[in-house]
Design a protein that fits this description.
- This protein has 182 residues and is mostly beta strands.
- It has a single domain, classed as Jelly Rolls, CATH 2.60.120.
- Strands 1, 2, 3, 5, 7, 8, 10, 11, 12 and 14 form a 10-stranded antiparallel β-sheet that branches.
- The protein is globular.
- The two termini are 28 Å apart.
């Protein structure tokens, strides 16, 4: 696993980049600086789970307490569905990324926007979107999602952990970027 940080472009500063050189169960951004207005996470990943797809699992501040609520719209091949859940221990009900049964070279994308993450006067909101398209297995391999989430906590956000729901690790070459936005 390699890590770097510090470059900037138009109000967005790369705080940390993690590129996996070995498969691993999870990736964490810890000790997040508190001097930005907003946070952004971008990831391009796949897992070693033996399936066409796996699901992102996201924790804030290392807590698995039932304090996440989420509302999702999911496109699964040609089907559009919705999902709502309260009192979840993590984010990620239907946030897809490819497993080992997906065509080689297919990667899943995740984008997460966390506005005003340092404010401790109200619960934290965030927006997630992403998905994957497996052109070879398009009948079973097209997924997209958008999600609005509420993290019922006013504690300062100091850590974000990303992992997957399946039994396989995140794959070598997966890339995770954390940005601060001014």
């Amino acid at each position: 696993m390699s890590s770097s940080g510090g470059s900037s472009s138009s109000g967005r500063v790369l705080i940390e980049q993690i590129v996996l050189s070995v498969a691993t169960a999870s990736v964490s951004f810890s000790q997040i600086p508190q001097n930005y207005a907003h946070l952004e996470v971008e990831a391009l990943a796949r897992t070693l789970t033996v399936a066409e797809t796996d699901t992102w699992v996201i924790f804030f501040n290392g807590s698995a307490s039932a304090n996440f609520d989420e509302l999702e719209v999911v496109t699964n091949n040609n089907l559009l569905t919705g999902y709502a859940a309260a009192n979840q221990g993590s984010l990620g009900a239907d946030l897809y990324l490819p497993g080992t049964s997906a065509t080689a070279g297919v990667w899943g994308r995740l984008h997460m926007w966390i506005p005003f993450y340092t404010n401790t006067n109200y619960d934290r909101v965030c927006h997630l979107d992403g998905g994957m398209v497996d052109g070879v297995n398009i009948a079973t391999g097209g997924y997209g999602f958008t999600c609005e989430a509420l993290h019922r906590s006013t504690a300062a956000l100091s850590a974000i952990e990303l992992s997957n729901l399946g039994v396989g690790d995140l794959a070598i070459g997966s890339i995770f970027n954390l940005y601060g936005v001014t």
